[in-house]
Amino acid sequence: MTKSDKATAIHRTLEELYPEVPVPLDHTDPYTLLVSVLLSAQCTDVRVNQVTPALWALTDRPEVMKTIPAEDIREIIKPCGLSPTKSRAIKELSKIIDEEHGGRVPQSFAELERLPGVGHKTASVVMSQAFGVPAFPVDTHIHRLAYRWALSTGKNVVQTERDLKRLFPREQWNRLHLQIIFFGREYCPARGHRMRDCPICSVHGRKSLLKREKG
Fold first, then answer.
1. Which of 129, 154, 185 is a domain's end point?
2. pLDDT tens, position by position, 63-81
3. 121 assigned to active site
4. Which of 43, 128, 195, 209 could form an S-S bond across to 174 if both were Cys, CB 3.0 to 4.6 Å?
């Protein structure tokens, strides 16, 4: 089986398991999605969804958020971790969005990645989930699964994103990255994972990892 054939088979399995793929972060517009994705760095989506209602009660508009002291934002988002850095980034990016982009989240990778606290992965999530632009956000979970499935060398997330984009059609990217995330949570966790019990790893897993597990 070629790597392309394997990718097709994996996609077919994911389509069967996850015909519906809701965006895991609760949001109402591109701005609230952007802030939620920023908060999700080194934090679970579940925790972010528990924290953001209190933040939105404060405000969910950039023109107001920019006026709120970073300390007040920090107090609300503490459970998400890295709160000093994240609170400053939220305040600063809100100011830029309001004053330089007319209060609207920019719709380009370059402009998004210039915002404080926004890297390529965060920009990719916003572009794909808020604006429908084909993107393949690769977090540590997708990076791990792509290596386990021998779809990428696993050297770094940049290489993994490049490999996955080559293997899967552009029109599949936005949906597929969510399907892989859901699959990883349910069947393919980082710890305590048995590849031979996994619907995808058992069939398409990296041979060296399967051999090590058996041995």
1. 129
2. 999 999 999 999 999 999 9
3. yes
4. 128
